[in-house]
Specification:
Number of strands: 13
Number of helices: 12
Number of domains: 3
Largest sheet: 7 strands, mixed
Radius of gyration: 25 Å
Distance between the termini: 65 Å
């Protein structure tokens, strides 16, 4: 038989209210009393009845994290999970994760329990590219308080300051005296219906920084085939070969900003193959979720501060839970420079 608060109260000789306060770590009481109650609870194998609490309070003390099963449409990193889980823990909430295929999010008949039934207090949506319009409609229709992570929506969303990242990278190179600065990214994968907003914003930030000092900008696509883990397209990875070809062209710039480490790492590999000294002959700054390295060399990185982004997403979700019908303005999280050895 499960132990109850009544059992703990009888064993310790205190009131039900005192036991409840000790278990919730609230209320004022002598620390030795609190420790004695908690010790007795452990000895009796007491576990809080979250169902009873949810029924009584109308809350589950849980947030859902909704992701796509398609790798390119939901990006999750240790920083992202750390930010979400640590912020939820600070509010004594836990995380319910759900990865779902598109058809379960665009069909009323196949809608998952996470949306059909109240299982969480709110939803963090990590679905940030090719978001189906029907999915957005269904989520809004079911009125579950939701915040979109790293998505470009009219409201209720949070993302890094991608334009600021492009500007910061370029301004750093300008401050080192570079004037011929290129910007490189890959073409949008053919599996995606449209670009992620960061592709345009980071390039715009680069162009703004170049134009602010009267310089011509040079944003280019590095033509290469490559496959992310789990995509399953079976393409040969030609990123290093494409980088070698780009570096061998006439009029090579003295510095380059790359959209992400997926461009920077093959580029750094190519410089090693060609004997190009970094940063003396080519300076390099990339934009990424966290500091990165290639060939054992730490790359100067504009850190997108995803852990803070996800903390902010949780804070916004708590606001939505309290006022579900009030739209929250989109939030951009400041980025930061992490010095490496490439600039």
């Amino acid at each position: 038989m499960k132990a109850t608060i009544k059992d703990i109260a009888e064993r310790t000789g205190v009131s039900h209210v005192t036991v409840s306060n000790a278990l919730r770590r609230s209320g004022r009481m002598a620390e030795d009393t609190r420790r004695r109650i908690l010790k007795t609870a452990r000895e009796l194998g007491y576990r809080p009845n979250t169902f009873a609490k949810a029924t009584r309070m109308g809350r589950f003390s849980a947030a859902g994290l909704l992701m796509s099963t398609f790798h390119g449409r939901s990006h999750i990193s240790f920083g992202l999970l750390d930010g979400i889980q640590s912020e939820l823990a600070a509010h004594e909430m836990h995380l319910v994760m759900s990865r779902l295929p598109d058809e379960k999010l665009t069909s009323e008949a196949k809608l998952p329990r996470l949306l059909r039934e109240w299982m969480t207090d709110g939803l963090l949506i990590n679905y940030n590219i090719d978001v189906p319009e029907e999915m957005v409609r269904l989520i809004r229709e079911h009125a579950l308080p939701s915040i979109w992570i790293n998505a470009d929506m009219d409201s209720d969303c949070v993302c890094p300051d991608d334009a600021g990242a492009g500007r910061m990278a370029t301004e750093q190179l300008l401050s080192h005296g570079h004037r011929r600065i290129a910007y490189l990214q890959y073409p949008t994968p053919t599996a995606h219906r449209k670009k992620h907003h960061s592709e345009q914003r980071r390039r715009e930030g680069y162009e703004q920084a170049m134009q602010s000092v009267g310089l011509a900008s040079g944003a280019e696509l590095l033509d290469a085939a490559w496959t992310r883990p789990g995509d399953g397209f079976g393409e040969k990875d030609t990123r290093v070969e494409a980088a070698v070809r780009w570096l061998q062209r006439d009029g090579r710039p003295s510095a380059v900003v790359t959209y992400s480490s997926s461009v920077a790492q093959p580029l750094l590999h190519a410089t090693a193959l060609l004997g190009i000294r970094v940063p003396e002959e080519l300076a390099l700054i990339t934009i990424e979720d966290m500091p990165v390295a290639a060939q054992g060399v730490p790359i100067t990185t504009i850190d997108l501060n995803v852990e803070e982004m996800d903390r902010q997403a949780v804070r916004m979700l708590l606001q939505k839970i309290e006022a579900p019908t009030d739209p929250l303005a989109p939030t951009k999280v400041p980025v930061k420079l992490v010095a490496g050895q490439t600039s």
